[in-house]
Amino acid sequence: MTTRETLSGPARELMRRAAEQLLDPAATWAEDLHAAALSGELMRPITEDPVLAAGTRRANLSNLRHWAAATVADPGGRVPPNTGAEMLETSRDMVRRGLDARGLDAFRRGQDVAWRRWMDVCFGLTDDPQLLREVLEVSAVSVTAFVEDTLAAVMAQMAREHVELTHGASADRRATVTLLLEGAPIPLARAEARLGYGLSGAHTAAVVWAVGADARPAQVEAVAEAVARAAGVTRRLTVVASAASSWLWLPTDVLPRATDLAPALAAAPGVQVALGRPGRGVEGFRRSHLDAATTQRMLARPGVGQQLASYDDVQLAALLTGEGAQVEEFLTDTLGGLLHADEDTQATVLTYVRSLGSTTATAHALFTHRNTVLRRLSRADELLPRPLAEHAVAVAAALDLLRWRRP
Q1: DSSP class of residue 48?
Q2: For residue 365, what are the contacts with CB-CB under 8 A and spacing of at least 6?
């Protein structure tokens, strides 16, 4: 079997050239890498949390680039484990949420996709079977050793930090909140004592988070404080879900207003806020958070571009958003040609329905002339399979769904 020591000069050069192509992976196959890493029912707690999913994606790319850079420098050499910031921070977040072993397995899942891409690159650079045999034998050993060494190093680091991450007041709050959200039977008095927060009154939940390599916890905390002030409360329950994500519960049934939060969000453009519906008691505590989590997933969809939304903003789209042919069929059957019309026409129809059929109110809301509204509505009626007046609710629902899905 070929080893690093017996690797020929041409094989070393081929490995170097192939590894250079992995330093900047194409978006299409990088997404395949992420999809594989996050696939399966066991990974659902990660895929449903935009912060954890984004951290896993960053760590995946970090691993790929780490191995590629080391291979460019020393083709066939043993690559040192990746204990960079992306890997360690993502792993810490997994430990905080009790998902460390499950989360680390994501990096093994991505290995298969990366290996297939590696073979494609190598076969694209040469058709010499002997050269390919040399390169693939050595790189197979290198990749496997790197992944196992990295996971071992990260797990050792996590073991050293485990007490700090899973004990203390913050960890107790996370554990208690997890039990409440799962509906586990826990005495109310004990839960309130652990949380330092009353559960029998009103609650409005929020999720405040930042996604990106430059996310700063201080900005998340500043926005979280602004959310509490905007809701008119001086105290809140805060659970640090990850390094760049906090779960909040406010003892009020008043939703913070967007205008009151605007200055804080403008000062932290990388931070987003998802609000749940107000509720009461333990069930309201649970339901409001689940609503906020649903809102978070909608805000985190590619291309949405909003920093703030409440559950009422996304409820219909969240119910309709799903995979498979049924959703596409609904959009096509309901909108017909309007599905592919310009955004101004679509926005006019949606605003018109929301304005209860008032063209004057629609023109005012869109800052446009009433005649322009009438022309757009006439055009929409030409494109729709049925007149707008006959199925305005369905059309509005489809356009709202389209707005949240728009790339």
Answers
A1: T
A2: 351, 355
Domain range annotation of the chain: 9-166, 201-314, 322-405
Q: Which long-range contacts (CB under 8 A, 24 or more apart) does 21-24 make?
A: 21/121, 22/64, 22/65, 22/67, 22/68, 22/114, 22/117, 22/118, 22/121, 23/65, 23/68, 23/69, 23/72
- Among residues 144, 150, 138, 148, the alpha carbon closest in space to that of 75 is found at 138
Which CATH code is given to the segment(s) 201-314? Answer: 3.30.70.270
For residue 182, the tally of other CB atoms under 10 A from its CB is 9
Q: Which residues contact 305 (CB under 8 A, 6 or more apart)?
A: none
* Letter string b/e over residues 73-83, b meaning 16 or more CB atoms within 10 A of that residue's CB: eebbeebebbb
* Residue in 242, 257, 243 with CA at minimum distance from that of residue 204: 257
Cα–Cα distance for residue pair 366/284, rounded to 1 Å: 36
The owner of tokens 């009151």 is 260
Which of 26-35, 163-172, 370-379 shows the lowest mean pLDDT across its residues?
A: 163-172
Of 204, 171, 200, the residue nearest 188 (C-alpha):
200
Q: What is the pTM of this model?
A: 0.67
* Predicted local confidence at residue 133, as pLDDT: 92
Nearest-angstrom CA–CA distance, 16 and 23: 11
Structure tokens at 163: 């007490």
358 burial (CB, 10 Å; 0-12 / 13-18 / 19+) is: middle
Structure tokens at 109: 């899942």
CATH code given to domain 322-405: 1.10.10.2840
pLDDT confidence band for 168 (50 / 70 / 90): low
Helix H or strand E segment including 238: strand 237-242
Residue 107: name the closest of 94, 122, 123 by CA. Answer: 94
User: Per-residue confidence at 309, pLDDT binned at 50, 70, 90?
Assistant: very high
> Rounded to 5 degrees, what are φ and ψ at 249?
-130, 125
* φ and ψ of 175, to 5 deg: -65, -40
pLDDT of the residue at 214: 61
How crowded is residue 115: how many other Cβ atoms within 10 Å of its Cβ? 15
